[in-house]
Amino acid sequence: MPALITAALYYDPKSKKWHIYSKGQTAVKRQTLYWGVPHTPIGIIAHNNLLPSAALPMKALAAPGNPPVLGPLIGILSAQDRKGSLKGNFNNYKAIIKAGQTIGGIVFAFTPSSINWKKRIIRGKIFDKDNNQWVTYPFPFPNVVYNRIQDRSHENQKSSQSCIRRFLSCPGITLYNPGFFNKEEIIKVLNKSPKIKKHIPETTPLLSKADLVDMLQRHKAAYLKPTYDKLGSGIIRVIKSRLSSSYIMHYYADDNELTKFQAYNIYQLWNMIQQQMIHSQYIVQKAVPLAVVSNCPFDFRVLVQKNYQGLWKISGLGIRAAAHPKSITTHVQRGGRIDTPQNVLKQSLPHQKPAKIIRRVNRLCIAVAKVLERHQNLLGEMSIDVGLDHDGYPWIFEANAKPMKFDEPEIRKKQLEQVIRYAQFLTFRYHRKNL
Q: Could you tell me the pTM of the whole model?
């Protein structure tokens, strides 16, 4: 089995040519390698000296053979504005491109309108850090399409859906994480696993007032959650009084302030709930009393990703503590704070070993990823929200198909690295022992 060779690659925006730095090269020489899907020839000029700093540095892997293959070629699928231009989290795109330059992957960003399906060419964008600008270059179809369309509205556009479907049907191309998760569907899938079901709070679709009444009759408190949401938008908590027919409702107002409303009967409560619901279907879920740190509830954000062997691994586990005791989410954007598992668990559950709790949460999240993968199109990563009750028992609240940036530097570094490593696996899976 031939070993993969690391190639130092450069793109010169002025000459619009690709170059390769070959230390043992005695003279300038032209080489032809093949990249993308199907294998497309790329003419490369080999040098024994580094090119001027104006050239864009890349790193890739080359598999000797007939033909010699260069890769991985990774296309970040982005949303587009009305003119078809790149839209989304540009800093994230830059970070992924930089990770490719460091680890070994040619990464570009593109939109559905930048694809020429007939010629199988994409006008992709690479970021030129030295000149602080995006450079457009024609690429063949990539080995891996990494779907980072940032929200459901853009992903549901006809152009986005058509693009995703066509890539999914292209032989040799891997498009993973083809869409956002639906909370109701995810919970139904996970409840089919006896191992995982016992870690899912009781949850039902919220189709009418009766569904809420039924849940509150069995449990003191419940959460109302949109099946499609972002950053906790639209979440409502309802607590039923034990001594009367009144209810306390908490929700986030338009100014993102946590708001309390007291209803004296179910009709008044339901009327207010309908006013605060966002445009989405809802589920109603039993509220699990969470363990606290400094009197504030906390939960885990667990990042699960495929690695260079195509296996699910934990890339990181962070803690998010709520802003104050009555908060209904732990999102940093809602005032939550970041902490470390060891620090929080020692304070919150002093009679239990933090390492044992962490191992249990990690095993549970790997199991969740494997179950979801069997019921979804190809997945490569997800984040999972896990809470602990006062006994340290883990509860799964939700899974997200497109993890946001983790603020912990070590987790963020691993997050970016695994995106490139998984693409290497998908491109050179028969050479994976050499990665």
A: 0.93
